[in-house]
Amino acid sequence: MSTDTTTAPASASTGGQIFGYELRLNLADCDRAIISSGAELLSWAQRVVDAIDMNPYGEPWIEHFGPKNDPSKIGFTLFFPIETSNLLVHACDDSRTAFINVYSCKKFNPQVVVDLTKLMFDTELCVVQDFSERRAPVRA
């Protein structure tokens, strides 16, 4: 498992302040029952939004689809808008993998997202990329 603690550059146009905080997770060996269930993914998303103190903006969108000629890429895509941006997930049923992106203009604790995701997706195989002003590494 690797951790990329790349630091986002502060922009001169924002007075040297970070505009957004982004966390990307690449997961493997996920529990198939979790990642192939729309209800379970929606439950995960709501728990993450609550755990990082964000406010939903409307209803999440979730669909199960993929290319008909490549079943390995079929799975759920979830988009959950929050007042300060969104959570995005694509989970592939057959490969038991998932890609997650959490982006917000409001600062959040990425370790909370990592820990909750690993617990709910029942995996230890997680590559973390934290693109924020934080200097402390996020444990995968």
Return the CATH topology.
S-adenosylmethionine decarboxylase
Over all CA atoms, what is the radius of gyration? Answer: 15 Å
Instruction: Give me the secondary-structure category.
Output: alpha+beta
Q: Kindly report the name of the CATH homologous superfamily.
A: S-adenosylmethionine decarboxylase
Mean pLDDT: 85
The total number of structural domains is 1
Run of helices and strands: EEHHEEEEHE
Task: Estimate the strand proportion.
Answer: 25-35%
Q: N- to C-terminal separation?
A: 6 Å
What does the main sheet amount to? 7 strands, mixed
Low-confidence stretches: 1-12
| C-alpha geometry | globular
The number of helical segments is 3
CATH class: Alpha Beta
Helix content class? 10-25%
Strand order in the sheet with the most strands: 1-7-2-6-5-4-3
CATH architecture annotation name? 4-Layer Sandwich
Number of strands: 7
Task: Explain this structure.
By secondary structure, the chain is α+β, with helices and mostly antiparallel strands. The chain has one domain: S-adenosylmethionine decarboxylase (4-Layer Sandwich). It has three helices and seven strands. A hairpin with a 4-residue loop joins strand 5 and strand 6. Helix 2 runs antiparallel to helix 3. It is globular.
